[in-house]
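Hey, quick one: can you model this chain's 3D structure?
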Amino acid sequence: MRGRQLTPVLVALLVVVASILGMMQRPPTGSPRQTVDYVIIAGAPGLRWDDLSAQETPTLWSLAERGSIGALSVRSARRPTCPADGWLTLGAGNYAVRPGGLTQERCPDLEITVERPDPNGAYLPDQRAVAMHNRENLPWGAVPGALAEALRCTTAVGPGAAIAAARPFGRVDRYVPALPPDAASTLAACRLNVVDLGVVAGERPGEREAAVRRADEILGQVLAARPERSLVLVAGLSDTDQASRLHVAIADGPGWSGGWLTSASTGRPGYLPLVDLAPTALAALGEPLPRQLFAGHPADHTSEGRPGDLRAAVARLADADREAGAQQRVAGRFFVLLALAQLVVFVAAVPLLRRARRYGGPYSRPTWPASVLRTGELVLTAAALAIPAALLADALPWWRSSRPGLVFAAAFLTALAATTAAVMGGPLRRVALGPVVGVGAIAAAVVGLDLLTGASLQLNGVAGYSALEGGRYAGVGTVGLGAFIAGLLLVAGVLAQRVARPWRRALVVLAGAVGVLLVGSPYLGADAGGAVALTAGVCIAAALSTGGWLTLARLASAVVAGLAVTTGLAVLDLRRPPEERDSLGRFLTHLSEGSGGPVVHRSGAANVIAFATSPLTLLAIGAGLFLWLALMRDWGGAKRLFGLYPAVRAGFAGVAVASVIAGLFNGAALNVAGAAAATALPLATLAALRVLVHADDRTVVGPAPDGHPPATATASRGRGPGAAASREGVDADAADRTARRAADDAVVAADGTVGAVPGDGDRDPPGERAAPATAGDVLP
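Sure thing. Here's the predicted structure for all 780 residues.
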């Protein structure tokens, strides 16, 4: 007997160990990074991939043909990034900003005072003030001039390059305002050269094209004079107006032939952030990196997936730029409408819940017609499927249309109608918790399959993340994580309700281990903080799945299990190279180096910004108020729902714990909780509504099988929501339970057939209505 009791525990332990081992790093592949003698960074703020062509920009085109290319995200400490900010971020290797901003919806002209105290060098008199501003007023810990400080000598060509090459106190080692005719000696004077190709902008016809041709000509002079064994990095360092875009990134030199640019910062081929350029230059020169100052990682290249034809590769990068721009415009409106629509649904559900239950007596309040209840269930199901439908809509290239917002809306409504019909038009509709299982399975499957196939639906997706934000380029995003947590734990809770009590915890742990693997693996979800949060939610759900309260012993076991899994994740992450560590490993590394304070400060600042600016914050707060002021009231049905189905209550508790922790860990405040609430709370309302509708149904019991005493019919009315609560879960009426056990748990359908019900006593349903059913089902 004791062996049978230990079996679920052993199964759970094996699953947890397997999930942690699944996150172990792969063996390194490819050749080691080659070093060079010189690095030349040629910056052209505003340069985009749709500016390039073989006819108009032959130098850039030929360099892209033989080099590695990618889309550059030019995030700085200010949005949008103006040219001065881009140059300063390049020199700091961190998110920095130069005082000044947009003027009349465009970036100001680059005006900088460059003093020449000697013939070779230069001095920027305001550099000290700029460095002080970034250190004292911004949370990133940026030190303008950190790149120049890491080397003995740096050459700057042009005023923009002087900003990047200036040391923190303003000194530029070598400076020339323009590339001289004898450029070879200039570029060979220092190991690092920064060249200003000019700003690519213009509103008048032909102005932008002329700027692109001028940048191409200057780059031709640079390539003609480049030293041997040199690496040339071409970068469109910034935006030029309020519209954020993806820009050009090209690397050409020894070890950089062909393929896509990538790095540990993005984890995705073809994408590179601006803060990676400084560490890339130092790594190419074989110099040590000031990791406490740099926010990026050295770039690398991969030939995975790049087309052989450069035109096709450039078209793909330009298409990614269009998609990212359209995503930013559409996503803001989508989440505002989503939050407002969900709040309207919550308000409309209040009268629906108040009049859902039938009470006895001659003066009982009339209930809603069946058509109104069916409409309410349909609306609640559609509300819960909004985020999965938005992810599915990104499978269509809606951003290529001239009216991307309308095309996305059409695709979203089509996906929403299809998924809603799949849930409510099938057999799941006839089961009390069927919509909860159906919606949860769709949400978890959409996000999980997307992670298994490269997270293409989330990259630059409306319900995903934008490469323009510079925060995430691969893995699971904030919104996807919330929907995944809600779907996974709700499905686990419903399935656990269907099995024998000793196996419930093992089933919840099994589902949770799969989820932790998907979320935390650096090759799938790549979110260690989300994996830790999901682990906490799974532990709480497993502890509550057998019913009863969260006792001190259960809480202690959940905390110990959560700490064990978190420790395993941390150990595996710390075993990876520093540049490949996830947020958990990087945070622990900073703590060990004594620089954890700025990391905590940045995370806190990100949480405050996300809390104050995201519509999902409003949704999360509104969902919490609706749960407390409506669903948990006597007429709300949640008490009765959670009493009848303790494992489902455990799933909802796990969703709340995991989503809140995930948002705090990832600097997203209540965004994860808001996304989870958008999926989970409409399902809780729907399930509570069904429980209330059938709260006073009469249980019909048929003739007893041979060898059993005859059964009696008993009414299950008059107990009230949550009145039958007990420590091990709330059963139905005691008389109902006695009648069921006497009849060997048999229920009689309208046609006289008998359906046997498993005899797990804590799963007594709230009363079947004239149809064969299994335990825990409420048939409409």
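One thing worth noting: The first strand starts at residue 38 and ends at 43.
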